[in-house]
Design the sequence.
């Protein structure tokens, strides 16, 4: 389910939130956005969560790029496919790799 976080309660932010919901729910790919959340901080919209393909990540960004009252869109959505391949940053792997390189 798509959700929003930390949305300040004012008329503009409520309108932006409703527009995001309308766009995601009205999209042919809405099923793929059920693991997407967003956070509105002033005029900055940050989108996070997971989608199955890079194409879906781009579709999501395209759907949300021209919202009223939004000056910056930050797309932190991870691509996690059904095969287990992921674009998600694995901090443990990076830390292990860095430790191995220094020894």
Sequence:
């Amino acid at each position: 389910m798509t959700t929003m976080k930390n949305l300040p309660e004012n008329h503009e932010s409520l309108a932006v939130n409703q527009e995001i919901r309308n766009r995601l729910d009205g999209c042919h790919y809405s099923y793929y956005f059920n693991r997407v959340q967003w956070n509105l901080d002033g005029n900055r919209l940050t989108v996070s969560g997971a989608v199955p393909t890079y194409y879906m990540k781009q579709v999501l960004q395209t759907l949300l790029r021209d919202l009223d009252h939004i000056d910056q869109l930050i797309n932190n959505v991870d691509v996690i496919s059904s095969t287990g391949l992921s674009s998600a940053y694995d901090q443990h792997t990076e830390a292990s790799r860095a430790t191995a390189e220094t020894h």
